[in-house]
Amino acid sequence: MEWRKSSRSGNTSDCVELRQDLAAVRDSKRPGVTLPVTRTAVRELIAQLSR
Is it the case that residue 1 has pLDDT exceeding 70? Predict the structure, then answer.
């Protein structure tokens, strides 16, 4: 599975990417560093950002 970034990020490199199979996020400027998170935490983050 590939890393995905928000379509709202456009062509900038200032974004956070998500990889569902790893339940992890990373900064696109530092792709070698990942932050493992639970799927629940990702869902809660998205819900909070959508408000």
Answer: no
